Amino acid sequence: MIVLRREIGDVLRDARQRQGRTLREVSSSARVSLGYLSEVERGQKEASSELLGSICEALDLPLSLVLREVSDRVAVAEGLLIPDTVPDEFATAVDRFPSSPRELTPVG
């Protein structure tokens, strides 16, 4: 079963670690206790929208980006296909640089 608080925690922890920052640094910047931030990252506590906003600000990440990553992870866990931003047909057509629009044919 997908637990949203775990996915949120994983995304936040991954972002913090990619930045090479400690729990102490981020908790101080977000004005949240180190223990509470640790519990949020481990998916043991639900972060309120205000707290999540503070953590994202401390990590210098847009909340929308964090929520997008969480959404993508949930979709994958549900077995949904997440489309690429650029459809294969378009990418293939651009690679071929057709001389006329009629040469744009779907691939596959």
From TrEMBL:
The lineage of its organism: Bacteria, Bacillati, Actinomycetota, Actinomycetes, Micrococcales. GO terms for molecular function: DNA binding. This is Helix-turn-helix protein. SUPFAM superfamilies: lambda repressor-like DNA-binding domains. Pfam families: HTH_3. It comes from the Bacteria. Residues 12-66 form the HTH cro/C1-type domain. Gene3D superfamilies: lambda repressor-like DNA-binding domains (1.10.260.40). InterPro entries: Cro/C1-type_HTH (IPR001387), Lambda_DNA-bd_dom_sf (IPR010982).
